[in-house]
Write a structure and sequence with these properties.
Keywords: Cell cycle, Cell division. It comes from Patulibacter medicamentivorans. It holds the Pfam family Epimerase. Residues 3-223 form the NAD-dependent epimerase/dehydratase domain. The protein has 305 residues and is an alpha/beta fold. The protein has a domain at 2-174 and 205-231 and 278-285: Rossmann fold (3-Layer(aba) Sandwich), CATH 3.40.50. The chain has 10 helices and 13 strands. The chain has helices at residues 11-22, 34-41, 81-103, 143-156, 180-189, 208-220, 238-248, 259-266, 271-274, 296-304; strands at 2-6, 26-31, 45-48, 66-69, 114-120, 131-132, 164-170, 172-174, 202-203, 205-207, 226-230, 236-237, 278-279. Helix 3 links the parallel strand 4 and strand 5. The relative contact order is 0.13. The structure holds NADPH dihydro-nicotinamide-adenine-dinucleotide phosphate. NADPH dihydro-nicotinamide-adenine-dinucleotide phosphate binds at residues 7, 9-13, 31-33, 37, 51, 70-74, 86, 90, 94, 118, 120, 170, 172-173, 179-180.
Length: 305
């Protein structure tokens, strides 16, 4: 299979590219900095693309079997109005440009057959203790939810061009290097930090291997369409999650970090850690996907042990 990947230089995309190359697939990468992408990713064809300037070059899209679209500016920054606009556009407008490039290919047989698009657990908003499956509607009045819904809606427009569109709604991706886990573990290693607020909010965690495993399963499946929740089967609260990290790094976790202090420090962005999402991988079975790391303790041992 020949796959074009956006966001390929990121935490998830770079592991996806490794896995595609390891199984003998060909990879084309679209990056704002093609040279850096080539250096970081090795045996890939890399093309420069500034999504704010228009659609990607046809040479990176035409004749490919599939596209995996993961590009997006980090949400882990201060949410000024300008930053929110950039965060949103880097997903929604980027996807619009990508679909425009596919539409511009005159010969339908030269269009990619599949689009696997990113999305996030933020789609559902703060859903308390209820299990959340893929048929749950998006939250309203919530920046992350509105953005995820708009991102998915753009991706779905590719279905009108004949593509099979699968959406991977991702929870908190846990990796040994990069992403949230090292940032959460660092203060705990120094005996600082703790669970957040009352710790009862659910954390929709997933091991990086399973995040990429689900993306590959969505790529490979001949008919799967629509969303799949990318969260491990074992649902845990923030308190259980934090204590599990403490166990693996052999540090007791005894005190909470007050939610009001986080809200004061982070503003609206605090919802990233205070919202509850008991997202379960309801449709992963339809993909025939078997989790490599279904249990939190084992996943953390693998990543931090
Ligand atoms: P990263 O932040 O590690 O990488 C995202 C990539 O997107 C970058 O490598 C970059 O590629 C590209 N990018 C960054 N800013 C912009 C911009 N302003 N415009 C266009 N492209 C940009 O993300 P992850 O790998 O962690 O996540 C991949 C996707 O999955 C993201 O869209 C994210 O929202 C989603 N996700 C991730 C979660 C996680 O826990 N990691 C949780 C939920 C969803 P380049 O510089 O090569 O152009």
């Amino acid at each position: 299979m020949h796959v074009t990947v956006t966001g390929a230089t990121g935490l998830v995309g770079s592991r996806l590219v490794q896995r595609l190359l390891a199984r003998g697939d060909q990879v084309t990468v679209l990056s704002r900095d093609a040279e850096r992408a080539r250096q970081a990713l090795g045996a890939v064809e890399a093309h420069a693309w500034d999504p704010t300037a228009g659609p990607p070059p046809a040479v990176a899209i035409e004749g490919r079997d599939a596209i995996v679209n993961l590009a997006g500016e980090t949400v882990n920054q201060r949410w000024s109005d300008e930053a929110k606009a950039r965060i949103r556009d880097s997903r929604v407008e980027t996807t619009r440009q990508l679909v425009a490039a596919i539409a511009a290919i005159d010969d339908p047989s030269a269009r990619p057959g599949t689009l696997v698009n990113g999305s996030a657990s933020g789609y559902y908003g703060d859903t308390g203790e209820a299990e959340v499956r893929e048929d749950q509607p998006p939250a309203s009045d919530d920046f992350l939810a509105e953005m995820a819904a708009a991102w998915e809606a753009q991706a779905h427009t590719a279905a009108g061009l004949g593509l099979r569109v699968a959406i991977v709604r991702t929870g908190l991706v846990l990796a040994a290097h990069g992403g949230a886990l090292p940032v959460i573990a660092k203060p705990l290693r120094s005996g600082l930090g703790g669970w957040i607020g009352n710790g009862r909010q659910y954390v929709p965690w997933i091991h990086l291997d399973d995040e990429v495993g689900l993306q590959l399963a969505a790529l490979d499946h001949p008919t799967f369409e629509g969303p799949v929740n990318a969260a491990a089967p074992e649902a845990v609260t923030n308190k259980a999650f934090t204590k599990a990290i403490g166990r693996v790094i052999h540090r007791p976790v005894l005190v909470p970090a007050p939610a009001f202090a986080l809200r004061a420090a982070l503003g609206e962005r605090a919802q990233l850690v205070t919202d509850s999402s008991r997202m379960v991988p309801g449709r992963a079975a339809e993909l025939g996907y078997v989790f490599a790391h279904p249990r939190l303790d084992e996943a953390l041992e693998d990543l931090l042990g």
